[in-house]
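Supplementary Note 2. Why include the ligand at all?

Several targets in our set were suspected to adopt different conformations when bound, so apo predictions alone were not considered sufficient. For every target with a known small-molecule partner we therefore ran a joint prediction. The input for iron/sulfur cluster is given below.
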Amino acid sequence: MSGMNLTLKVWRQNGPSDEGRMVTYKVEDVSPDMSFLEMLDVLNERLILAGDDPVAFDHDCREGICGMCGMVINGVAHGEQRATTTCQLHMRHFKDGDEITIEPWRAAPFPVVKDLVVDRAAFDRIIQAGGFISVPAGSAPDAHSVPVKKEDADAAFDAATCIGCGACVAACPNGSASLFTAAKITHLGLLPQGQPERDSRAKAMVEQMDLEGFGGCTNTGECTAVCPKGIPLDTIARMNADYLKASK
Amino acid sequence: MSDQTHHYKVGEPIRDTKAPEGPIEDRWDKRRFSAKLVNPANKRKINVIVVGTGLAGGSAAATLGELGYQVKSFCYQDTPRRAHSIAAQGGINAAKNYRGDGDSVYRLFYDTVKGGDFRARESNVYRLAQVSVNIIDQAVAQGVPFAREYGGLLDTRSFGGAQVSRTFYARGQTGQQLLLGAYSALERQIAAGTVEMHTRHEMLDLVISDGRARGVIVRDMVTGEIETHLADAVVLATGGYGNVFFLSTNAKGCNTTAIWRAHQRGAMFANPCYTQIHPTCIPVSGDYQSKLTLMSESLRNDGRVWVPLAKGDARKPADIPEDERDYYLERIYPAFGNLVPRDIASRAAKNVCDEGRGVGPGGLGVYLDFADAIARLGRDAVEKKYGNLFEMYERITGENPYETPMRIYPAVHYTMGGLWVDYDLQSTIPGLFVVGEANFSDHGANRLGASALMQGLADGYFVLPTTVGDYLANVKSFGDVDPAEVEQAREAVQQKIDKLLSVNGTRTADSYHRELGKIMWDYCGMERTEESLRKALERIPELREEFWNNVKVPGDPEGLNQALERAGRVADFFDLAELMCIDALHRTESCGGHFRAESQDADGEALRDDDNFAYVAAWEWGQDGPTLHKEVLDYEYVKMTQRSYK
Ligand SMILES: Cc1cc2nc3c(=O)[nH]c(=O)nc-3n(C[C@H](O)[C@H](O)[C@H](O)COP(=O)(O)OP(=O)(O)OC[C@H]3O[C@@H](n4cnc5c(N)ncnc54)[C@H](O)[C@@H]3O)c2cc1C
Ligand code: SF4
Ligand code: FES
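The joint prediction is reproduced in token form.
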């Protein structure tokens, strides 16, 4: 089986103040079993040997859990394959002769560091505002002192699987971080341990989200469509309800 | 004493590990009571550096912050939440005995010492088992959504051959949920101003002044600036070094740089050769392969492992009739069958592939077949149990495991070795503490499943905060850091970067890393022999020499330069690889994850040599080769026995 020949149009930007541009590369003999990032590795090895600057991109675990990778592929955050991070996307979903455009997350609160690498520190600051339960080490009661209904625990878990990748922001026409923020508010708000700080948490996190310059939510649903963990849209309704209650 | 043929010298033994005397169950209490306390008002003036934000480092930094110290935390990712702990799937052990199935602190202690093949310290392991129960309490209070039963109480599963059900889990994402718990505690302290976070910063050297660890030299990976950060104590929580093999289940950025530099500055490195190879990973599909993905061990509960009886049988699995298949685990280990421990399953797979009976590309794979399970339980039941794993397998390989058997192969997964630490988790450099996978402390020669998460959090939430406090309280005055020492460390870092960028050769750092990894896998992997290790010890220095004269690292020292980051890590892997092979060569016994072909019983099973090797091998770095210091292991509570799974 011989490999595919592809044309890549990759966003190159040498730092935040550079204007940036699309650059075209050919990659040959791409195996369908390669991951998307392995295909870029091959390109980069070639660029290095040719004395060119390799394409910078973020990645670490390469198994869809750390949330570090992320590119807009053919206009879709993490590519067209549903519920899949960029690192878990494999080349068998492309065909010989395809042209693929690759761009970074684009959102004002996520400035480009270089090429496909963006700065997502705004997400950490949203968590700092209240995405926790205040319980210093050593002060916890026995784990069985408060039973949690299985349905609540399962629903909290589903919301807690957010990997903080930022695809939701990149996909949203308003550049909103609502899905990310709502996922955390939902996770903690569904558990009995999360109740004492529930109102203050929702208020502080939503306000921080606005402060960072993320847009508002107009219910387009683009976020949940690209979310590799399938965080559902109704978490946002929950966040809004908690926020309203807290702001009264 | 010097031994040329063994590449090392032998130095003084290590006699004192600082573990308190007396009954084992009282030792940690004793230590806590004897630990001096720092006056709360003084804590604000004391600075602690924590490098790494995984379970160990994240929990340590958060807890030290809560206690009132001024903490600086570092990680190489863009946010602390991405540390490799995030990838742990299976679960975390704790001796809660919520099931009433006979578990206890003592049993967890016993299982861990035995599982470690009698190469771990009893005192440390006992403390780990004691503290395990507090970890679950802490995590639940933080909002970690562990699996629960309909009654609302926590669910557990059994894991890794334990006879009790003591593994707490959050679906297949236990590491993620525990790390997000530690991360939220850390972010809370960042907001409170007790922790200052430095993301995208890589530690490249350690600053020592007056014999004490006093700071780190880091590179800001975005600007390229070399920075100095000083403190009163330094904690390394930088994870494992499995990536020395290039291909492993670790994240791409996992490295040895931080602990290796500390080693070169005087911290001893213990048991570097103890490596855990996990039997059920997705095999390599081509030369471009960048990492390996673990498939949960639980699959072996229902999957049957086999290869064709005949060499080079290229038929499709479905076309190979029953009587031409070799269910080799069931054949060799009738009592345990497909459920033999990790190291045994891994080695057996290697053996059949070495015989030319492996399947898939390159013949490096064996089948894990669910046909019988599907026939017996029905497809729905199999899907319920393993649906997400089957999906992951199909995503990566493009093959449907409901219809054709999975292909699996062993892969490097965890490193039991690491920097030597005493009972207080302090290295041989005063003021340098090491926690999590980066230290060697609790797993001996083999780690049990679901025990790494437990150890990381035990170290970070509960042990370290006490012992660091004692260290800080005992040092009367730290004095100023010697500027000459800082200068010297900075210069060493700068020189290495300049050198890497100036070679301008003809091969990439990754291509050298791949080749080094292959040497390690072939000669210091699942099975080691004197001959293979000597070969590796010839090849590694040759390849390192070539690397330093022919590597091509593009770009500038300034700004984001991922190729430079990688090259720096590869350079350190070369040195570590050499020490691993020396350690493996010197330990002529087999134990746990270290299998020396020369040391096996009549059935081909690992044979320990307790008379000669019941010690921790702690290596001191030296310009002209390492020096071995032995810490003899005494077993007062658990009787040493030989493992058998037949
Ligand atoms: C796929 C997989 C599954 C696993 N499943 C389980 C399981 O089910 N149960 C279990 O108990 N164990 C499991 N393990 C093992 C366990 O996950 C790890 O041993 C453990 O999480 C390590 O935690 P840590 O805090 O020591 O290090 P890590 O989580 O690896 O964190 C290392 C930190 O150090 C930082 N760092 C590293 N080098 C530098 C440097 N030079 N400068 C600055 N920062 C640096 C990184 O940024 C990171 O923050 C699994 C491991 C893998 C690979
Ligand atoms: S909500 Fe989904 S898309 Fe957004 S950060 Fe979390 S995982 Fe990524
Ligand atoms: S690299 Fe970790 S999620 Fe893609």
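Chain A is about 35% helix and 15% strand. Strands of chain A lie at 4-12, 21-30, 72-73, 76-77, 99-103, 112-114, 117-118. Comparable summaries for the other entries are listed in the accompanying table.
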